Amino acid sequence: MKIKTLNDGAFGSALVALEPGERFVSEAGAMYRASANVNIKVTTRTGKKGKGGLFKGLKRAMAGESVFFSHYETVDGHNGEVGIAPALPGRVHLIPMDGEQTWLCTGGSYLASEATLDVDTKFQGLKGLVSGENMLFIQVRGHGQLMVSAFGRIVELEVKRKLIVDTGHVVAYTDGLKYKLTKAGDSWLHSFLGGEGVVMRFEGEGKVLLQSHNPKEFGRSLGLLLPARG
């Protein structure tokens, strides 16, 4: 399977080239075009060993993701193509997974993956609500290619010891990292007056993917500009 990310300007997308027998999975609604020989099946189950079901679909909804997955495969023994794009403008990033490293995706950042990967949810505790994120993150493990999306630009950072990140800017991180919530400034008052409020302090060794813009803050700013409902 070959996946090509198309990040022209602010509107990223991806083109997936499928060979006979290969299967690809995305969140429902992410496909914007497909070859006529590609069969699309919508289900609550992930691609690996048929894991999933309605309960896990509801858990994904609590994590800010779609309840359903779209599965793609060719049906005539020939190659096919599927175009994938996120709902928000920004970058699309491809993560090659070797079967050893597990990634955790924050709400709304999981876009698609090879059917060989296991996609599940992981409980983050009440700190997810305090941080403005969800209590459940999407956990992805196995061997294959994972696709995530970001609002704005996307940056990959290697964490050696500690890293402070403003909440709402984390796209995904490796499972070896731990985080706790803390203030950005010298005091909670300075943090909130500075517009930062609560931040995530990562510790350990691993990788973090960050997005340059915060979609929730963008939504709040946009909402203030909209006319009042009559």
What is the 3D form?
globular
How many strands?
19
Low-confidence segments, given as residue ranges, are: none
In the CATH hierarchy, what is the architecture at level 2? 4-Layer Sandwich
- What string, H for helix and E for strand, traces the elements in order? EEEEEHEEEEEEHEEEEEEHEEH
CATH class: Alpha Beta
What number is the mean pLDDT? 82
Strand content: over 45%
State the share of residues found in helices, binned by percent.
Answer: 10-25%
Q: In angstroms, what separates the terminal alpha carbons?
A: 51 Å
Q: In the CATH hierarchy, what is the superfamily?
A: Mitochondrial biogenesis AIM24
Break the fold down into its secondary structure elements and pairings.
Elements: E1 2-8, E2 11-18, E3 24-27, E4 31-34, E5 38-43, H1 54-62, E6 69-74, E7 80-84, E8 92-98, E9 103-105, E10 110-114, E11 118-123, H2 127-130, E12 136-141, E13 143-149, E14 154-159, E15 162-166, E16 170-174, E17 178-183, H3 188-193, E18 198-203, E19 206-211, H4 215-225
